[in-house]
Amino acid sequence: MIDSTLLVQMLLGALLGLSVYLPLACGQLSLATPGFYAIGGTLAALLSTRVRALGGGESASGSGYPITSLLLEMLLAAVLCGVLANGIGAVVLRLRGIYLTIATIALVEILRVVSLNLTITGGAVGIFAIPQPFDQPAGYALFTLGLLLLVCWLCQRLAVTRPGLAMAAIRDDEIAAASSGIAIERWKRLAFVLSALVAGVCGVVAAHFLNAWNPRMGNFDASITTLAFVVFGGSRTWIGPVVGGLALTALPELLRPVGDLRLIVFGLVILLGPSLFPQGLITPELLANVARRLPLPLQQSLRLEKVRAQGEGKP
């Protein structure tokens, strides 16, 4: 049974999957998502519990935290994560392949250890009693669903405009893209920054939803989990990470009736998924087949929208 609490976790998983997908759309395997996720969550926890002007501080308890303050935290987290990602990306994105992956894993661990040893973040204990902007999990579900739909729409627009087409060219053949005059470093850094923005904003929502935050929220285990969302769902289209994030977040809870066997079953799914579906559950070919089954007017409408978006992306 999927209740509102599980639904929020599934939606957050889908957002984190999209965060991992964005660098992959440019041919870069970055596992820095949990690091920026932790930055967003830590920022939200600190602001909402220490800054009275936002409705936080000692007077803040329980629900009733202003939505405007939540939105402000999301904006500040996006700015902070974007600035950090732009600076870090200038260095780490010079690496390729497994070396970039290792560098981003190191970034996640550095951020975790720093947070673990800071007094202001509560050390290993973390920060508790984070104010709640919604009285019920259903409120978080609706808010997170709206955020996910917005990010999905932006990913779809990105895919058919000039930046997205440039990223796809880099992913397919970086040397050929460079010889065609595409600014490789520029688009790689943009993908990395967008990934950080999504993860940071997601962390803000997660901190309020969980009502507590500690350095363990952004660790190496989270890097592997978010990568599994993309591998399982598919990395060639933004729909894949969404499906993977929703499915793999819900599966452990849905398997609770089988008791201790649920982790074994979950592990088998993770193991067999890439074996049976090497490109993930959702592939461009699958989406093309689905599109061909749609009514002809709807097919024509989708083609017209794609052509119009590509035209807007021309220099």
Task: Write up this protein.
This protein is mainly alpha-helical. The chain has a domain of 217 residues. The protein starts with a helix and ends with a helix.
Rg value: 20 Å
Mean pLDDT: 87
Main-sheet strand order equals 1-2
- Give the strand content: under 5%
What overall form do the CA principal axes indicate?
globular
Task: Count every helix, treating DSSP H or I runs of 4 or more residues as helices.
Answer: 13
Map the helices and strands.
Layout: H1 4-24, H2 33-50, H3 67-92, H4 97-116, E1 127-128, H5 137-159, H6 162-172, H7 174-179, H8 184-210, E2 212-213, H9 220-233, H10 239-254, H11 261-276, H12 284-292, H13 296-312
Key features of this structure:
mainly alpha; about 325 residues
Summarize the structure.
The protein has helices at 4-24, 33-50, 67-92, 97-116, 137-159, 162-172, 174-179, 184-210, 220-233, 239-254, 261-276, 284-292, 296-312, and strands spanning 127-128, 212-213. It has 315 residues and is mostly helical. The protein has a domain at 4-220.
